[in-house]
Amino acid sequence: MKTVYRLPLLLVMLASLSACGDSEETEIRAWMEAERKEIKVVTPKLSEPKVYVPFSYEGKSSIDPFDPAKLLVVLARLKAESSNGLKPDMERRREALEAFPMDSLKMVGTIEKNKVVYALIQADKTVYQVKAGGYVGQNFGKITSIDDDAINIKEIVQDAAGDWVEREAKLELQETKK
Questions:
Q1: How far apart are CA 102 and CA 137, in angstroms?
Q2: Which helix (H) or strand (E) holds 10?
Q3: From residue 68, how far is each of 29, 59, 71 by CA, in Å?
Q4: What is the pLDDT of residues 67-96, one digit of tens each?
Q5: Residues 107, 174 contacting (CB under 8 angstroms)
Q6: Mean pLDDT of the 142-162 span
Q7: pLDDT tier at 4 (50, 70, 90 boundaries)?
Q8: How far apart are CA 171 and CA 20, in angstroms?
């Protein structure tokens, strides 16, 4: 008997709930319409765009600041003003070890032949013999002296102003790992 009473009760509850849903929806729609009527949309006016005034370049007769010829003139003047007179010999024939940067060269030993001391320098997998007065590295490095544990080198490089300056470098004997 209890199931007989439950079914009609359930149907009555469902009907009442569906009626509630319709009334709430109509209330919400009415509220939205009322709000739309009350709200006034205000859009600010945009300012007028600036008037474009074409510019005519009057410096056509003067030197173009981006002209490479102007740069060459300035560099030539700086070179003429350079007082130290130091510069590498660009005309001399390059030696084999000048193709390698200094940090890729390794001193692996020294030998003496006919009272002349030679340093042994390894570049890649090849060992070269060099003596004082020879050239190494890519910065016009000239070997000034060879000791048992180091090679003293004088390089000629350009500074920030473009002047040639000398700097000391040293290539030290590399210990072999056993």
A1: 5
A2: helix 2-38
A3: 75, 17, 5
A4: 787 777 777 776 666 656 778 888 889 999
A5: yes
A6: 89
A7: low
A8: 95
